[in-house]
User: Fold this.
Amino acid sequence: MIKTAVMGYGVVGSGVYEILRKNADVIAKRLGEEIDIKYILDIREFENHPEKELFVKDANVIAEDKEVEIVVETMGGVTFAYEFTKKMLMAGKSVVTSNKELVSTKGTELFEIAREHNAAYMFEAAVGGGIPVIRPLVNCLAANRIKAVCGILNGTTNYILTKMFKENRSFDAALKEAQESGYAEKNPAADVEGTDTVRKIAILTALAFGSNIDDNKIPAEGITKITSEDVSCAAKAGYAIKLMGSSFIEGDKVFARVCPMLVPYECPLAGVEDVFNAVQFTGDMVGNVMLYGRGAGKSATASAIVGDIMHIAKRNEFDPRFAWGEERENTFIDPADTRYKYFMRSESSEEEIKEAFGCVKFIEGCSDAFITEEMSEAECEKKGEKIDISSKIRVYEVKE
Amino acid sequence: MIKTAVMGYGVVGSGVYEILRKNADVIAKRLGEEIDIKYILDIREFENHPEKELFVKDANVIAEDKEVEIVVETMGGVTFAYEFTKKMLMAGKSVVTSNKELVSTKGTELFEIAREHNAAYMFEAAVGGGIPVIRPLVNCLAANRIKAVCGILNGTTNYILTKMFKENRSFDAALKEAQESGYAEKNPAADVEGTDTVRKIAILTALAFGSNIDDNKIPAEGITKITSEDVSCAAKAGYAIKLMGSSFIEGDKVFARVCPMLVPYECPLAGVEDVFNAVQFTGDMVGNVMLYGRGAGKSATASAIVGDIMHIAKRNEFDPRFAWGEERENTFIDPADTRYKYFMRSESSEEEIKEAFGCVKFIEGCSDAFITEEMSEAECEKKGEKIDISSKIRVYEVKE
Assistant:
């Protein structure tokens, strides 16, 4: 029997507890061994919990108990979660987490500590909730040089954009509905401004290309400025607007960005709606592979965590494939040099627009909207100075 | 260094050779060890091959060479492939295959031989080409009870149906184009009649639910009877027609079927076009997860094979999670008892149709097409006797 502990009994932590109890039989059958929970760490009281004897308030109880092999961290944040994760790894225990902030900001250091103590630090649940993402990348696509990663990585913003698209809502109205349905938090900043997506694409990029990416280097735009007119004009041209985290490698240079993008309908990412998430990897051998499912939620996220626990239970040691190294200096591409087509809306005359941008494609049924040819960010910025631009959204190009 | 051999130097086998040479550096880095090819088995001559010294014609050379740890079987068919796979497993070598026919018909026996000799028998490439399917199911979703599996598992038929849908082609015209583009074989029976899909859904079903499914029990209908009118009427009602392999479990009873189905546009499976494939698993915790990508082709399939080689290189032993047991008796649900809504086209009058089927939904713009309420196959068969039916296609219901 493998003994585990859960740190943080919130939505995801209680989901882990529930799966380990509810599916104990299938888990034991598949693993050839039972998984038990010995402790739950939480500062709150759970007097009415059916197993209230499991609850402890002191992380040292877990760290010092030699029987506990695997610890789940579902506390969130980077203060206590960071301290307790270090403590557990240093005690030789493997840690499984859904904490994307901690993995994206402290991953490199925590991998090093895990390596030193030959413990695993696994984080499938930190990106894409229940969707298998990390292991398919690391294992199944291991024969490929990964060229690009992109994805719809945040359910809240995708729910809002879907509402704007399907029901012609304004951003504010759609956000309010998302809050009322429990899909957006009272303070939605981390979602709608793209911070959550930055953390996730930082993790995927580091793993795909092998070295850490500083979150702060990743240019991020949220969806707060997207209007319902943008959405309907894009639709008329055959595009859905999605908040995309994307990254690519060119030689030894990497780039990552978070921004709303126009995704053509023929691309399967355009069909990812509501709170669903999808991640696409482009490998030199396999081409494009997309993984799709529920990117958040109690059971889906807990499903990924228990999957990691079972993985570690089979092989409890540090595995360098599930880690990345320090950031390499001077390898992050200057955002100004990256190239896109741009969707724009402008009150300027057709002539002025053509004078500024040359050959553009006006969108039928949206007299003020057009799509430019491909150019660099710097070029676009400069050319745009000559006209009034009310909306400017990058166009996602399907590559393989 | 890990020594391997490739049996069968056709499209996929040569793809494996090429990846192992071209990406040798990343493979060695990720694995911490190099992978080399010591032999290639093929009865044909490859006088101009740059490494012609690798070619052998006798499988015993490989079987008797203790240095060879992993053997790739990309021969196809069940005669020699079966014999040689057994020979390699009995010599304690692990085998990686893309041979869906062999895995679906002889899997149970080959797993047993692999288990006895503590060798691995892996088959990620047999379903969905390069798409990670087997390992996400077995590893990442290990905490779930799988409730259902379905997928678009054959690229040829999906290419034909996409042509019929987008370019309003007849089945015959679309098939001809597929043959000219190299997406369909001269004798397309295995694809268009559903046999290829049967093998793949048999493998996924056995793996998801733990016991073998006899291919011959799986009711299969191909796409040869689908007309361009069916496709356009379905489109008017908001559905794409796809050849689906699907299966589910209810208590201890399982069912699998291959048939064309109407898939509603809001389901991501409807957006899978051309030669792309997608597999959807429904887990009790994670809900629906979809894996999408190139289901065939040299590099994509070889990518999955090399992924399996690297998996085995890390852990060369029999793993019961990647296998299934004997078929359990009397557990296959009677096809007549399975329930669907049906899309039909009929020359009979609206009154006759309503008399036969009760409440149906006629499709606007297609006076002869309608969708029934849900009923069992047996019920539908009986009710249908009263009217003339020119097309009858099951409707896929999105469940979670």
User: Anything to note?
Assistant: The mean pLDDT of chain B is 95.
